[in-house]
Amino acid sequence: MRRKQKPLQHHEGIVESLSHDGKGICRADGKAIFVSGALPGELIRFSFRPHKKNYDEGNLVEVIKPSPDRIDAKCKHYGVCGGCSFMHLSSEKQIEAKQQVLLDGLEHIGKVKLNEILPPVTTHPWGYRRKARLGVKYVFKKEKVLVGFRERSAPYLAELEQCEVLHPDAGQRLTSFSSLIRSLSCYDKIAQIEVAIADDISSFVFRNLVDLTEEDKDKLIAYATAEGIAIYLQPKGPDSVTPLYPENPRLQYHLPDYNVTLDFEPTDFTQVNQDINPKMIALALELLELNENDHVLELFCGLGNFTLPMARFAKQITGVEGGAELIERANKNAELNNISNTDLHVANLMEDVSASSWLKNDYDKLLLDPPRSGAKEMLPYIDKMNIKRIVYVSCNPSTLARDAGTLVNEMGYTLEKAGVMDMFPHTAHVESIALFTKK
């Protein structure tokens, strides 16, 4: 028997603060209510349906007294589309909010003291996103193919005409992609489009749940030819991705400050924001203070984004990554750039790596760039290495704070500096970087 829903409650209240994911925190009968789109200090009217004991998710009904920091969202789909959560807040205030999330985490989760806050790393906040996964859905009631992101707090695709944060080569194609897919015989069998924007060509991977007819392929090829883009097909898992047109597209991005060019495949992990990326690399290298005698260990090295720039300044870089295909790509990228002082290994850094040969080396410095789960599993090995200088690049302030607590309170490191990098403007995502040293 289905449990009867509790009635919707309506309240007025002052927003106390922001949560770590950018929602305004209000109170109703002593319970915390998290309200998307609300800002600290605002008097708002909100609704929620009681569900949990200590907190609930609420909906913003009306801003009665707005914050002076509130701005009009540039995107007309904001509030419906779930892709962005901070577009009602100025870019400067977004950075301040993200910095506070970082500082609160270090203090309350890690129980560590930060000696110096780094200036935030920022760039232009629009049209920045070069990697994305767009949902595709044929809606029978509308007789229309929707392409884009899910609605906020709902499993349905939002009906979008454009996206202001996607690179224009993707963000301005949502309606033309919709028309293109609707023209195919399998218009209801395309599940998603993977976006990967290179410096010289934009690529799109169409996830086709059935084999395409020759006529369908011809339509995709005609579109790709006319628009100057690359289209791939993915009939099954990630290993099935193959180019449709051009026959052999070459995806690259360039790091001219280091005379480095990196080849990548459309489903490879690359940094979403290629305007922030070179600034992030420069800051990481500055914090590492590399010299020609350094042997650097890089964990979670990927396809060489940090590895190859570091190799220009250090004696040796030993890189480790879980994905064999990424290490293969990194080795080819080293060869492409005539770099010979890299030693790259495949290892699952979430598991026991005690038998790994690279653990037997002595290292002067360490660069960590783990996934959202952090580097917890690697910390016991790092403790035995006695490395004097660690730069930690993080995409999750909570796991950075947790690992910082271990590095500082258990392993004797000092947290010298930390700061945020605005990799994802208009979202609550916090990218950060921290420097740890040991005397």
Topology:
Layout: E1 9-14, E2 17-18, E3 24-28, E4 31-35, E5 43-48, E6 55-65, H1 91-108, E7 116-117, E8 131-139, E9 144-148, H2 168-171, H3 174-182, E10 190-197, E11 202-208, H4 214-227, E12 230-233, E13 242-245, E14 251-255, E15 260-264, H5 276-288, E16 295-299, H6 307-311, E17 316-321, H7 324-336, E18 342-346, E19 365-368, H8 379-385, E20 389-394, H9 397-409, E21 414-421, E22 431-437
Parallel strand pairs: 4-6, 7-21, 11-12, 16-17, 16-19, 17-18, 19-20
Antiparallel strand pairs: 1-5, 2-3, 3-4, 5-6, 8-9, 8-10, 10-11, 12-13, 14-15, 20-22, 21-22
Helix pairs in contact: 1-9
Instruction: Give the CATH H-level superfamily of the largest domain.
Output: Vaccinia Virus protein VP39
Strand-pairing-aware structural class: alpha/beta
Report the C-alpha radius of gyration, rounded.
24 Å
Which CATH C-level class of the largest domain is it?
A: Alpha Beta
Mean of residue pLDDT values: 95
Shape: globular
The tally of beta strands, per DSSP, is: 22
Counted by DSSP, the helix tally is 9
Note down, in words, how this protein is organized.
There is one protein chain. Helices cover 22% and strands 28% of the residues. It is of the alpha/beta class. The strands form four sheets. The protein has an eight-stranded mixed beta sheet, sandwiched between helices. The protein has a six-stranded mixed beta sheet with strand order 1-5-6-4-3-2, with no helix packed on it. Strands 9-8-10-11-12-13 form a six-stranded mixed beta sheet. It is globular and about 65 Å long. It starts with 8 loop residues before the first strand and ends with a strand.
